[in-house]
Fold:
Amino acid sequence: MAAPATNIRNFSIIAHIDHGKSTLADRILEITGAVDARDHRPQMLDSMDLERERGITIKAQAVRVEYTARDGKLYRLHLIDTPGHVDFTYEVSRSLAACDGALLLVDASQGVEAQTVANTYLAVDAGIELIPALNKIDLPGAEPERVAGEIHELLGEEQVLSVSAKSGAGVEELLEAIVAQVPPPDGDTEAPARALIFDSDFDPYRGVVGYLRVVDGALHKGDRLLAMQTGTEADADEIGFFGPEMTPVDTLHAGEVGYLITGIKDVSLLRVGDTLTSKARPAEEPLPGYREVKPMVFCGLFPVDTDQFPDLRDALEKLELNDAALSWEPETSQALGFGFRCGFLGLLHMDIVRERLEREYDLELLATTPNVEYRVTTTAGTVLPVRSPAGLPEPTSIEHIEEPYVRASILVPHDGVGAVMALCQDRRGIFVTMESIEQRQQVVYDLPLAEIVLDFYDQLKSRTHGYASLDYELHGYRESPLVKLDILLAGDPVDALSMLVHRDLAFGRGKALVEALRATIPRQMFEVPIQATIGGKVLARETVKAKRKDVLAKCYGGDISRKRKLLERQKEGKKRMKHVGSVEVPQEAFLSVLQIGTGKR
Amino acid sequence: MSGVRHLYVHLPFCASRCGYCAFVVEVGALDRRDAYLDALLAELDRESGRLGTLETVYLGGGTPSLMRPRRIARLLDALAPRLAPGAEITIEANPETIEGRALRDLRLAGVNRLSLGVQSFQPHLLRALERQATPDQARQAARCARRAGFEDLSIDLLFGVPGQTPADLEADLAEALALAPDHLSWYELELKPGSRLASNGTEPYDEDEAADAYRRVVAGLEDAGYRWYETANFARSGHRCRHSLAYWGAADYLGIGVGAVSTVDGVRWRNAPGLGRYLAALAAGGEPPRTREPLDPDTVRRERWMLGLRLDEPLDVAWAGAPDFPEAVARLRRLGLVAEGGDEDLALTREGRFLQNSVLHQLMEYV
Structure:
């Protein structure tokens, strides 16, 4: 057995959104000369437009930089970027598995957030070395001592570095700490090759780009490779590293991080977490930790213009190629026509996919109320997965229904604990535990995922003035007395507005939903009653009053064109409406359920 | 073609700009009235080949009465050979700019219809609109017009004015009827981009209150014997505005003057705003700066529907052209918005007229 090169350091940066991870990565690239400060765009590592706009990192990246340390030796550092959102926990865990150490970067004024805690635990579970550092120490609101205390509480670590990623102060010390404290990679250079795919990307011309960490042996250009979990076989057309541009090499050795291009066009064939080995000399065991990502949240996506249905299918087929977590199947709605029921990792993932479909494929889409996957046991004893209220069997053939629960961990200042607990109780939460971390409380609840999918996060933020942070993971199924709430517009049921709700909450939800719909649906040529019903029994009713005046006030010879154009603009506005029976319904009405918690309840 | 039979003349001069105004007007340029009249006559001369016998002439503004009767007389003298017997010749006037003598002189010059811009009889609403006339001046002007021999008197009023209460509206109705005009135009105030009211953040009138006001105006005037012959226009028998009926009947018309619009033989053109440019172009013997908009057959058809449905008379479908969504007619009949009848013509019910735009969008594709 031979150990990999001792001058390699593989590390990532764990940080909450906005705590300065991207800025620090930029600074590291500059200081090590990987990029010239002049032709540098901010947030170099976030390459998708959407990411830059939202300030979040969707795709992990892996950049190689070279750094001559104060001991005079040249080190090769691989900075592996990790996604920063609760929807992408699995991707984070795989990125961490590719590292031997991690910087825990915490905003010196914001302090430790629930996500930071969650990702820190992931890192601790992965057994990697953690180096804590405070960022934004030069900002007026910084409280380095308090926040260092929180980190001590979290890690038991006494020494906490201080940096300003913005100015670059302290970044060299950070690099020195990485060299000194992150262990060089272990592994066996002579064993059969094993490389972990910790992320993948999609290039429209070259197909799937796998991001990998070679653990044992080596990968060579031209090797016949085998993905041990999926069984996919492919040739290594090109291997290389990011410097940060893609730089091809002949060999990636044990301990090194880089990319692989095989010509495969479908990300589901090269899945994150899979182990690549050599077909000629395969390893016996894959690397641990592989998991198939499962969508947790489902919604219907329908084209506003029914003619766009084939375009939507094409777009989903293409998007699926670079998003292994996206699932979809055809769905027909009486109200909305032909569309697809799509599955996502979470609400953010859903938003991102929808935006990409609209932006990159020029589609106009209507999204229905998101829901979770229920498990229905029928009286015949079979268990059915149910991903939409319309898919629910007849009430008489249902034995019982189970719904997915999550274990949610919420970090909140002490004075916000009451509000958080009230919210969790309100959302059918089951208290698990609570403990104090420095100035804050960590409150743990088991909650139905369906309640999180509703506006839980927004409510949490608003009820705690933005101070609470949330992390959660799936925590099994529980039986629930769920009922199907139907909405009738002008007397006709609208399947796309149906939802499954807890029996005890049905009245409140139904009332809030019809109120939200009344506020969203514009007045029409006739009165539109909106009813919420369960099993045909009306729970709540609102009415959109009929229009009583709709004329162009004045029209003389000089403004005929102007008035005609006004009609054209009005028509443009109507295009965003969907005809449901005789009623024109704006797109946002189908997401009204997401707003029902914001008003009075 | 027998030539254009309807002429609009834009007379842009104003003493001040009203708060709701977004028209092409010229404030503080009264010294250029003679030069403007020369330019108008030059443009008329350039376009004379298009003109047939004129059935209607409309002198609009701005404040046309500020041109003074002698200039109006010069303009009408130039038109005299083209006027049909009994041609309708309208002038718009602001009450504070007109008195007995001037009205008599206008009558003598050939003007036979007066449209008085009253807007409201309530001092606080006139202030909100930044109108110069007092309610007394409005009443006075109407009486003088009668005395001067105007047998076709119209007054303009507004509803939906910020601060207008239902009681204010009742008072305006009563005051307007007391003047016994032959014709009324009663518009909803529009907050037009470019007007001071729009730019100072005035709140639009509440939808239901505006609907109440509109319906009250229609009912009040109908009860007093006026015919609701167009969306916002009311007339005693024999007093509909023939010039406006030409617009709503999608007839050709020539417009001269700064900012004026013409529609002739499937082309619409608009003289650019800007008095200086207009005067310079015509003084130099050229065409005023214009933008042209050719009207394709679909546009013509959609305009005919837009305009025709404003009237209380059925729309002749063969003349207007088929609707884009003929299947909507049955639905609209079921909703009680289109009157029962055959396919040759289409009439809105009373309720349908209040929802004319919605009906239009069901029938026609405005793209």
